[in-house]
Design goal:
single chain, mainly beta, Jelly Rolls, 6-stranded antiparallel β-sheet, 2 helices
């Protein structure tokens, strides 16, 4: 009897199915995508009003022309655009296929109520991690809210200070207004990887509302 019990234990140890602990099957976890630089200098559009579809198209054209291949005559050769469906990130949906968001030192986090709030200063910031492909333009239409503050400002740039050495573009600071603000930030990529886009306010409390990300292959 002892021999049978010992045999059963040995079979359980050798056979995951018998022990009800199935062995792992499938591929290993994918390695983290490398952080890459935009193919050209990103372009910011902030008019103080909601961004129109025509302005989005013009913004894409501008960034594509700055990084598209040159023709035989030396002029920029712009091919037809192929636009992908828009990804929308919100406080209660901070990750979707193709992008995810990281909040650093927020003052308020309430995903059920749809609120991510931040304090003034670069240490309290929001980073959008965009998964990028070759020969593709990306447009982020970002909506944020600002509390009662005179002359509020925002700063945006590609890269993140969390991982030293991956800040690829100098920060751009622009004026905002109290209440809702909407602005667009566009760039192109000629590599496969990930491009982080960080935003913060140097002088105002603020909160995140939404970010629409559109990719346009060229």
């Amino acid at each position: 009897m002892k021999m049978i019990a010992a045999l059963l234990v040995a079979v359980a140890l050798a056979s995951p199915a018998f022990a009800q602990k199935p062995a792992f099957q499938g591929t290993h976890p994918r390695p983290k995508l490398a952080t890459v630089a935009p193919a050209s200098k990103p372009v910011l559009l902030h008019t103080g009003k909601p961004i129109t579809p025509d302005q989005k198209r013009q913004l894409v054209t501008t960034v594509v022309r700055s990084s598209a291949p040159k023709g035989s005559s030396g002029t920029t050769k712009v091919m037809d655009f192929t636009q992908s469906p828009t990804i929308v990130l919100t406080p209660d949906q901070m990750s979707q296929n193709g992008a995810y968001t990281m909040a650093y030192s927020p003052t308020v986090v309430n995903t059920m109520g749809g609120l991510f709030a931040f304090s003034p200063g670069s240490g309290s910031n929001l980073v959008f991690h965009v998964i990028v492909a070759k020969n593709t333009a990306y447009t982020l239409v970002i909506k944020v809210g600002v509390g009662s503050m005179q002359n509020p400002q925002f700063t945006i740039y590609t890269g993140t200070d969390v991982n030293p050495g991956v800040v690829q573009n100098a920060p751009v600071t622009f004026n905002a207004t109290t209440g809702d603000n909407e602005f667009a930030y566009a760039f192109t990529s000629n590599s496969v990887g990930e491009i982080p886009v960080a935003i913060y306010s140097p002088n105002s409390d603020w909160w995140f509302e939404s970010c629409e990300i559109t990719s346009t292959a060229f």
